[in-house]
Write a sequence for this structure.
């Protein structure tokens, strides 16, 4: 142990904490390092690319569905502006886990915003960064801030605009008060298209050495509904599940549906056939499905089977809705009657009604609509 000037022992500085990449969640491991790596947001990236050359960044408001790259984009942009050395003292990120009442705005945010940024330091990685003379405050999920907190933030944004830029990240832009939204340049993030999601998932699977069939990629895309973060998490969970067996098994589409909590297509198709929906394609072919008893007893028996399997009533309702509404042989009148039933059931389930009773009600109403 080393000693100081007076001979007293001094402890060595603690080693820098380094996370083993093998233990990282893939969402963090493959988070974009630069804004060029962000998938499928071409318009936003094109605009932000210009800020890297001019370094003149406005206050920004990123909004759109979850998992579309909002937080990743501003973090990547910040790293490209300030570099690894200045990132910590130039960027303040507050997430939903932090309290965002008016006291946080008046204390933590205001104290950080009023500090004049330090002079540019030489980057340790040998690269040159623009390092403009301002800091960035990232308020993730800003739509969960209280109205008072948003009102207090408005004045801070004006007062310290010369040395601090704000980036508000939210899912619902309508929950941001108008005086705050009008001070920001708005950037809309759209759900990822299947091509971009497929390319990113294939890249991750290849990097991790996991053989993945196109059907698995297709199932990941359909179950995540344009949320890339969710699909990457499902892929990692499926990979760990498949590697836990001896010998390791291949990932299948059914594995993805089980992990995602989605009712298997064959189960939904069998239920739909009991209600009188005609089978089309291989996805709806279930052995013995044509022998399902019809009428009240048949529907009641099938609903009881679904509930005993532990499937979510809301998930069954959602998938049955998609199947019936997009079915080519169901006419418009029947679809409208079914849609009203689905809407009524959805409201009841949201209010805490009994799942089995309402799925039975939906089944009987759909059966009645399709029989008329």
């Amino acid at each position: 142990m080393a000693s100081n000037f007076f001979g007293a022992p001094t402890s060595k500085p603690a080693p820098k904490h380094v996370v083993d990449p093998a233990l990282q969640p893939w969402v963090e491991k493959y988070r974009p390092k630069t804004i060029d790596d962000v998938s499928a947001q071409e318009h936003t990236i094109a605009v932000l690319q210009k800020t890297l050359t001019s370094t003149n960044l406005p206050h920004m408001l990123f909004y759109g569905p979850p998992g579309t790259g909002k937080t990743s984009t501003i973090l990547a942009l910040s790293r490209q502006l300030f570099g690894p050395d200045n990132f910590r003292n130039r960027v303040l990120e507050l997430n939903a886990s932090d309290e965002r009442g008016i006291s946080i705005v008046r204390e933590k945010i205001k104290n950080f915003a009023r500090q004049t940024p330090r002079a540019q330091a030489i980057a340790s990685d040998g690269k040159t960064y623009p390092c403009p003379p301002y800091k960035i405050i990232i308020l993730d999920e800003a739509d969960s801030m209280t109205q008072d907190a948003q009102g207090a933030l408005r004045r801070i944004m004006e007062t310290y605009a010369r040395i601090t830029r704000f980036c508000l990240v939210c899912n619902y832009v309508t929950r941001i008060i108008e005086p705050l939204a009008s001070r920001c340049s708005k950037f809309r993030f759209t759900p990822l298209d299947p091509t971009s999601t497929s390319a990113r998932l294939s890249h991750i699977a290849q990097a991790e050495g996991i053989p993945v069939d196109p059907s698995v990629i297709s199932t990941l895309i359909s179950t995540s509904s344009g949320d890339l973060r969710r699909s990457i998490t499902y892929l990692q969970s499926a990979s760990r599940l498949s590697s836990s067996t001896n010998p390791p098994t291949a990932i299948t589409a059914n594995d993805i549906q089980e992990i995602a909590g989605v009712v298997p297509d064959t189960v939904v198709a069998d239920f739909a056939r009991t209600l009188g929906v005609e089978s089309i394609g291989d996805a709806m072919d279930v052995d013995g499905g044509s022998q399902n008893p019809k009428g009240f007893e048949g529907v009641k028996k099938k609903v009881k089977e679904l509930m005993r399997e532990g499937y979510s009533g809301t998930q069954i309702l959602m998938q049955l809705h998609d199947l019936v509404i997009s079915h080519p042989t169901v006419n418009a009148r029947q679809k409208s009657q079914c849609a009203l039933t689905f809407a009524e059931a959805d409201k009841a389930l949201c209010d805490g009604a009994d799942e089995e009773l309402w799925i039975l009600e939906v089944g009987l109403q759909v059966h009645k609509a399709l029989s008329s």
